[in-house]
Amino acid sequence: MWLDDGGTVLASALRLTAPLAFAACGEYLAERAGTLNISVEGMMLSGAFGAVAVGSATGSPTVGLFAGAVVGLLVALVHANLSHRIQINTFVVGLVINTLVLGLTSFLLQTMEFSRTQVGMLRIPGLAEIPLLGVLFEQRWPFYLLLLVVPLTWFLVNRTRWGLELRAVGENPQAADVSGIKVNVRRRQALMWCGLMSGLGGAFLSVGLVGSFNSNMTAGRGFIVIAAVIFGAWRLKGTLLGCFLFGAADALRLALPSLGVELNPQLLVAAPYLLALAVMVLMAKSQREPRALSKPFERGLV
Amino acid sequence: MSHDRARTDGPVPALELRGVSKRYGPVVACDAVDLTVQRGEVHGLLGENGAGKSTLMKVLMGLVHADAGEIHRDGARVQVHTPLEAAELGLGMVHQHFSLIEPLTVWENVALGEPGRIDREAICADVEAVGARYGLAIDPTATVERLSAGERQRVEVIKALRRDPKVLILDEPTSVLTIAESAALFEVLRTAVAAEGRGVILISHKLAEITAATDVVSVLRRGRLAFHCRTADTSAPELARQMVGRDVSLRSEGAALGLVVTDDPAKHLTPVLAGGLDAVPAEPPAPEAPADVPGTAALALHGLCVAGPDGRTLLDSLDLEVATGEIVALYGVEGNGQATLGDLLSGLMAPDAGEVRVDGRPVSLDRPGALHEAGVGVIPEDRHRSGVVLDMSVADNLVMTDLRRFSGRLLMRRAQIRAQAEELVERFAIRTPSIDAPLRTLSGGNQQRVVLARELSAEPTVLVAAQPTHGLDVGAIEDMYARLREAAASGVAVLLISTELEEVMALASRIAVISSGRITGILDVADASPQRLGMLVGGEAA
Q1: What chain A residue is nearest to B160 in terms of C-alpha separation?
Q2: Which domain holds residue B194?
Q3: Contact yes or no for B63 and A291 at CB 8 A
Q4: pTM of the entire structure?
Q5: DSSP characters for B510-538?
Q6: Is residue A261 part of a domain?
Q7: What's B240's domain CATH number?
Q8: Interface ipTM
């Protein structure tokens, strides 16, 4: 009996982890390059909206999914140029983008009609029969994109010259500059990747899990992603573990009533965020934060 | 390029700058500078802070774009827009600061700033090969933040030499090195120049280094090329005069320029560095206001221990006493715990163990402001970071540490603040358009006087001066020396934290040497010689 319940909760946890994991790959890379990108929330929300809008217009949720990623990229382009070209404070830019995306998508949702659009399931025969862990092999197909995106992100950051330069830029932009690295170009490029991944995460939420868009459907998941990167102490493995932790907390919140546990629903909604807060307090002393995180770079007289 | 060849009487120079100018707004950093570097030659570039040396080199490295002028490599005119282009033209630079990324490994740092794929194995092999060729052993997989200052310098040099530069530029390369490490560095340079025919530009403000290690010397003064000569045909006093623009004869001025030492430090390096230095004869250091009561020290540090966030020892049971009216210097190479001690005495951090006593009474270091209340004044090492607020007025900066005296329960007493500011500006001869001018508009020397005036106006028992003359011009240095002596004569215990040998020899009555967070020895200035200090700096007992 508990095995069935466990399987259900785990399945739900995995589903809820996936959008976070996509976006976290982006946020992790952006933060290693020195941008604490709070507009990841807006990128996810716009990606979710774009996916449903394009999916419903073309009739293909798959086209919608990739369109969502592109919408996230466009938001990133705006953020990158405002904060790493004309040097507006990145948090101000992020706040404006988040508020703007929330208002704009809610408005468009009211003025437009969308049909239901959802990508298909992919069930891997045999493996899906395994008790408990079988849920891993019975997911909406973009879930398996994680198998591509996660190693790719790790490889980009830790094995390529581009990634080495990103890390250099995130740790010590002055030194990177005198070594001949274009600091703000690298930071803009890192944000592009973040936009692409966050848009994909948002799109997976809408055309993958739900099949439609509703107002503020990311509901702060972007901020959870930022918490996950802190939880992972700016390492990819830890970040993904953090995503799973938050996904599991979310799944538990949904499962508890059906398991017969009665809790105040408002408190349940707040639970993942309380966890995020606790995690950040615990990890505040971590010494692995990129040293130039959220410090803008301008070549000076020095 | 035959007409170019005709212009010069010698062989085609490896590098030639013609009429390079660069201005930042109204400030002219470089004004039509000409510079020629031959193969197999060390070219010294001498100048005070702000003379335009760094800007000129940034132009060469493609970090700054000149407003006018030409750069020629092997006789052909070239454009340098980026550091990458500079590297392709065979220009390599060892930067004074800001060029290694601490959390990365040695090989990653060496690979930074090149195009193409990264091949870890090949780069590691390269690091070891270059290291072996020049005698610069280093583990390519070590993390840079675990390395000492000397080892980091080695990484910088390897990074530059691996790209096989035809012209190598070194910007103040010895500022963080011990005497032995400096000697080793010049040995490497000699190989690169004599055996491999590279050209070298050595930027320095240390006269001894320039006269000993260069073949040709150029002096920059306020952005202009003031003087150019073969090193053998000139002398240190002549170079000093060219650098400052007037005769240099005063003792403190000489010390500020690195002229007055009882002995020539360069002679003790290696034969490579041996060179004549006809310095201005040193007057024996006058016994400044002898310590009157050695019984209770005004400032006593006992067993101070501080560990860094990564577990490294920054201060290692440090003991030091400074008596009333005495100037004690804490001398050592940068990065051996001086910054930590400065932060500690500014109340920015608490030690893991040990105590600080002022006038015999222990001070509780956990409470902010306790040291200030106990009578410790501090001229911080980096005044822009922790000494002043550049965008606030001179008056506000002058009273900032003692606001309680100048405010009621709720409101500031403006009239009282202004009166105090006027008085201090007068007394310390601070050159400012008005006391309401933002501090940013003052020169470095006058900003430093504001800090000094503020700290001394609180009538401290102890004054800690950390690198008080860093970045100041000669006149301002001289003034700072006079005021520190005056403070000591009036009964303040002065702790001078300095990395300049000449400065500590000129000012202090006792010199304590710090190495890796420990005091390795304390010498009376009469017994101190550059050799003995040099050994202590290297961590050996003298």
Answers
A1: A179
A2: 15-248
A3: no
A4: 0.80
A5: EEEEEETTEEEEEEETTT--HHHHHHHHT
A6: no
A7: 3.40.50.300
A8: 0.86
